[in-house]
């Protein structure tokens, strides 16, 4: 199968253009091209010979190229590891859901820790656990994007039925960690409001209704949150996917320096108006860990109640451990970037190399120094920015991993599992549409059963009974081997 060329497939948009490294490297590219232009003009027009010896050009260029290659390779390894970790989450969640849906029995009687439960109640119980399992990758997605709390359109409807307090008195101090984050957010929002600096994202969330706030639909009216339960929330829900808006500072990074200078000058000009930040105790809940605890508790309940075999309980515990290990690895990728000293030293070395490059090649390349320096700057700076771009592949950039796709794919698979009715094999094995001995014998299973022990091959070239069955199976293998081999 030939893969499509992503460079030329599809329609080019501004968002797709921003995904290239050109939008990040063009200020540096213009600067080094301007330096090369100045060197070429001064030298070639005879004002002054700015050429210097190029002895170090080959040596430093080779070393710098190897270091940049290592930088890009290490960043891509992190990108690939992130993709593999999400594949592990997908495998573990589908395995866990399959074991729960198929192996946990329906009808139950009062026995030990079990209580009498109808088939409908058992199905609701299992479906609720799979809904909680569906919430796990969504919680991981928000966790990796540093989006704290549970009040999101794609997460809250899946876990809203979980207990909120440690006891029935519903005292605020007994709020469980899973729901404790919102209390701190409300306090912080009130403090910001007193300062007249309410966050834009909070104000945008509060403008929506409290039943199920309608998120900004994507292109083609794509709204996957419409498939989630319609649960009322006591607080406004944030968008399931809310990437930061592009500003002029993203396209002209140099302006960030001037913005910092202006802030420093204004702070010195008005020292009496300095803000007094109010620091508060903050509880940061690990939502994926909280969900895995509920899944582990249900697994322990199944084992203590004797509802599943010990090997099934072990398999469920293995899947939970796999989910936790995967989240730990994802957190390691997200929170351990390349050391700052390494990044600064590498970038400064590259800038110095490109700064002195036109002085070393102007003697031989003449006016070609300008396009040569521009091409070298584009090549080296591009690889450096690529490593910076994919080092943390869990954000909202076009080059990042599509975490929303992973979550929706897991959601579809879990719902496909629950659509399975667990029928008795006799209900479908002996169907008239089943031809188990094809292609050698295309009689249906019902016709074969009617023959009983008197089964004979269609050619009647073997004694009736087991010998004919074996002859038919060998002939089926031979026919399949012949018909499925293609001469290349």
TrEMBL record:
It comes from the Eukaryota. GO terms for cellular component: plasma membrane. Residues 182-225 are annotated as: Disordered. Pfam families: Bestrophin_2 (PF25539). InterPro entries: YneE/VCCN1/2-like. It is found in: Cell membrane. Keywords: Cell membrane, Ion transport, Membrane, Transmembrane, Transmembrane helix, Transport. GO terms for molecular function: chloride channel activity. It is a multi-pass membrane protein. This is Uncharacterized protein. It comes from Candolleomyces aberdarensis.
């Amino acid at each position: 199968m030939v893969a499509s060329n992503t460079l030329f497939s599809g329609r080019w948009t501004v968002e797709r253009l921003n995904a290239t490294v050109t939008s990040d490297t063009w200020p540096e590219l213009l600067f080094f091209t301007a330096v090369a232009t100045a060197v070429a003009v001064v030298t070639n027009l005879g004002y002054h010979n700015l050429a210097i010896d190029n002895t170090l050009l080959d040596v430093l260029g080779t070393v710098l190229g190897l270091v940049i290659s290592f930088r890009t390779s290490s960043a891509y390894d992190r990108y690939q590891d992130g993709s593999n970790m999400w594949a592990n989450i997908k495998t573990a969640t589908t395995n866990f859901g399959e074991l729960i849906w198929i192996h946990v029995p329906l009808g139950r009687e009062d026995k030990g820790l079990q209580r009498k439960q109808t088939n409908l109640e058992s199905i609701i119980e299992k479906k609720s656990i799979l809904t909680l399992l569906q919430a796990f990758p969504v919680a991981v997605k928000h966790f990796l994007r540093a989006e704290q709390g549970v009040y999101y359109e794609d997460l809250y409807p899946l876990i809203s039925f979980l207990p909120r307090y440690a006891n029935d008195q519903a005292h605020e101090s007994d709020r469980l960690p899973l729901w404790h984050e919102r209390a701190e957010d409300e306090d912080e929002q009130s403090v910001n409001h007193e300062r007249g600096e309410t966050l834009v994202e909070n104000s945008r969330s509060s403008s929506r209704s409290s039943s199920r706030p309608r998120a900004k639909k994507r292109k083609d009216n794509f709204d996957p949150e419409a498939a989630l339960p319609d649960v009322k929330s006591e607080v406004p829900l944030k968008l399931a996917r809310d990437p930061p808006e592009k500003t002029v500072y993203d396209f002209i990074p140099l302006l960030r320096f001037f913005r910092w200078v202006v802030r420093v000058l204004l702070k010195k000009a008005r020292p009496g108006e300095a803000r007094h930040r109010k620091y508060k105790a903050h509880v940061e809940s690990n939502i994926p860990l909280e969900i895995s605890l509920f899944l582990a508790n249900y697994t322990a309940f199944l084992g203590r109640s004797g509802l599943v075999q010990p090997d099934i309980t072990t398999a469920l515990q293995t899947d939970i451990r796999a989910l936790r290990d995967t989240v730990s690895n994802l957190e390691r990728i997200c929170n351990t970037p390349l050391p700052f000293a390494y990044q600064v030293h590498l970038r400064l070395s590259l800038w110095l190399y490109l700064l002195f490059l036109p002085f070393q090649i102007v003697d031989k390349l003449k006016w070609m120094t300008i396009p040569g320096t521009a091409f070298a700057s584009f090549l080296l700076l591009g690889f450096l920015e690529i490593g910076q771009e994919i080092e943390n592949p869990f954000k909202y950039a076009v080059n990042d991993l599509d975490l929303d796709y992973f979550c929706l794919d897991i959601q579809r698979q879990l719902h496909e599992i629950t659509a399975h009715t667990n029928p008795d094999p006799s209900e479908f094995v002996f169907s008239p549409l089943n031809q188990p001995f094809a292609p050698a014998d295309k009689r249906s299973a019902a016709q074969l059963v009617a023959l009983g022990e008197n089964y004979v091959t269609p050619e009647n070239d073997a004694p009736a009974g087991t010998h004919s069955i074996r002859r038919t199976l060998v002939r089926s293998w031979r026919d399949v081997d012949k018909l499925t081999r293609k001469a290349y």
